[in-house]
Amino acid sequence: MKTKAALIRELNTPWKIEEIEMGDPKPHEVKIKMHAAGMCHSDHHLMTGGIPLAGFPVLGGHEGAGEIIELGEGVEGLEVGDHVVLSFIPSCGKCPPCQSGMANLCDLGMYLLQGEAISDHTFRIQTPDGANVYPMTLLGTFSPYMVVHEASVVKIDKDIPFEVAALCGCGIPTGYGSSTRSGDVRPGEDVAIIGVGGVGTAALQGAIIAGARNVFAVDPVEWKREQALKFGATKAYATIEEAMADIAGITAGGMCKKVIVTVGEVHGKDIDDWMNLTSKGGTCVLTGMGSMLDTEVTLNFSMLTLMQKNLQGTIFGGANPKLDIPMLLSMYKAGKLNIADMITREYRLDQINEGYTDMLEGRNIRGVIRYTEEDW
Q: Which band of pLDDT confidence, cut at 50, 70 and 90, is reported for residue 54?
């Protein structure tokens, strides 16, 4: 079928809406009519080359929700008409990581940046002239239609708004899990969240729900600091230096047991500052992405050893997509997790560059693309 999509054909160029040819679902695949797609900073890394896919053109988008309109052979547990969230980490449930409780590290993740379908290692999307299109993390939610493997699909309740559900494909479980799973925030602990965009705001809520005593937010954008306070942050600071001095006083020099780093782009020179904000025996969780080409890190190794600190990487917040996405949405329905207020603005697909400008200039917690009859 012919449809449209937001593509990048070379680095550091804007998204462009183009026609594409979407293939039919093959065994263990489903076709989805998309209703909403979240605009995550990771897709901006595609534009800069910080996350390199195997080729061009690239179809962006790895956070979204929609409804199934067609099933391939052998699909189990899903039906036409089901509402689903697209998980940017596929989860097979059978490989050693999945079996050991680390579904966020599913072996199918090795294919995320190759663009080839999991089922048969061919491409489902082409341009009108027959060139293969490389979808972000085997998804490509910046298109009104998708064909994806069942391992990337999570069924949800039909009464959940699609724009809310979309954020649970990446930002919500990544942030929430960074605090509650990878960070293992415990009641009474002091926590700092570095960067309070979509992922950081989810991390902030996760820390509060886990029982943190103080949750400190650090972000250079004043409006985001104001929003962090509305979401329950104890205090908010513009810089690490400002935070360091004040938090030292509040904690009697103990600093923060957990520091969750959810900035849009990680730079190695900042690692030591985040570790200095971390207490003795504490953990700094590195959730934000940097360039895959960046290997330089500033870190005081002696302090790491002598203060027995931990620097913990995490992907998807350590979450199990098939378990945690429905769980988080059930918390939303119960009024325990505020996802709706994280959606700052909605955009049409042809407004995608405007949406990313708003994100980069600090005007959004999360922007969402909404698809309508005009797109289908």
A: confident
User: What is the predicted pLDDT for the residue at 144?
Assistant: 97
**Upper half-sphere CA count for residue 69 (Cβ side, 13 Å):** 14
Q: Are strands 134-135 and 29-39 parallel, antiparallel or unpaired?
A: unpaired
Beta-sheet pairing, 2-8 with 29-39: unpaired
Residues in Cβ contact with 334 at an 8 Å cutoff, skipping those fewer than 6 apart = none
Domain boundaries, the chain: 2-169+338-370, 175-314
pLDDT single digits (tens) 191-229 = 999 999 999 999 999 999 999 999 999 999 999 999 999
> What distance in Å separates the CA atoms of residue 292 and residue 238, rounded to the nearest whole number?
27
**Cβ–Cβ < 8 Å for 81, 68:** yes
Rounded Cα gap, residues 45 and 91, in angstroms: 23
User: Tokens 């509040």 sit at which residue?
Assistant: 250
Q: Write the DSSP symbol of residue 78.
A: -
Q: Across residues 326-354, what is the average pLDDT?
A: 96
Domain 2-169+338-370 sits in CATH 3.30.720.120: no
Secondary structure (DSSP) of 185-239: --TT-EEEEE--SHHHHHHHHHHHHTT-SEEEEE-S-HHHHHHHHHTT-SEEESS
The predicted-structure confidence for 135-151, as pLDDT tens digits, reads as follows: 999 999 999 999 999 99
- Residue 175 tokens read as 């942030």
Amino acid, single-letter form, for residue 270: D
Residues whose CB is less than 8 angstroms from the CB of residue 180 and which lie 6 or more positions away in sequence, other chains included: 206, 207, 209, 210, 317
Asked whether this chain's domains 2-169+338-370 and 175-314 adopt the same fold, the reply is: no
pLDDT higher than 90, residue 50: no
Instruction: Give CATH superfamily name and number for 175-314.
Output: NAD(P)-binding Rossmann-like Domain (3.40.50.720)
Average pLDDT, the chain: 95
pLDDT at 347 over 90: yes
Signed CA dihedral, 17, 23, 28, 32: sign only? positive
